[in-house]
Amino acid sequence: MPARAGACRAAASPKREPIWTRRWHAGRRRFRFLRPAWRWRRVCSIWASSRALALFQAVRAEEPTNLLALFGVGRAASYLGRWDEAERAFRAVLELRPGHVETLLALAQVVEQRGDLPRALGYLEEAERGDPKRLETLSRLVKLLSALGQSERAGQYEQRYRELDPTGKVTGREPQPSGTP
């Protein structure tokens, strides 16, 4: 049986790299498809910096009606924990584009972080009216209504969630078979 050409070269070379480095390089080649995800993680971490907030505020100063700049100010401010500034920015987006579902969800998150759960519920219900088949909205409604003690309404939204996605978990529980209580 003939020997491989690479095996002869490796055996003849006096300086051979350790086996762990060869495996490491082979592994990096194997998982090359993950590189775009790593880049996206770096891009997403930009939101959580004050430089991003300053950039969005500069664009907003030049173009006060730029929706992307307003939404960016709100998102960056919410990541930095500046709830008042984030709420103002999201409200400005809603004035320019009423009923925008992404903005309503973000505003509900900000208001919920500040502790005003009934107002957050109102924003989530408005977002649900705008896009009734959005699973994220239904899941957040179930969790918020459960926290407010409104289990009947939470059950209704959970039922709608399961109709749209029968395999999904809404509240962290496994879906029960239909015959069990």
From TrEMBL:
Q: Where are the transmembrane segments?
A: none
**Which spans of this chain does UniProt mark as TPR repeats?**
67-100
Q: What is this protein called?
A: Uncharacterized protein
The segments labelled Disordered in the record are: 152-181
Record keywords, A-Z: TPR repeat
One Pfam family assigned to this protein is: TPR_16
Any keyword Amino-acid biosynthesis? no
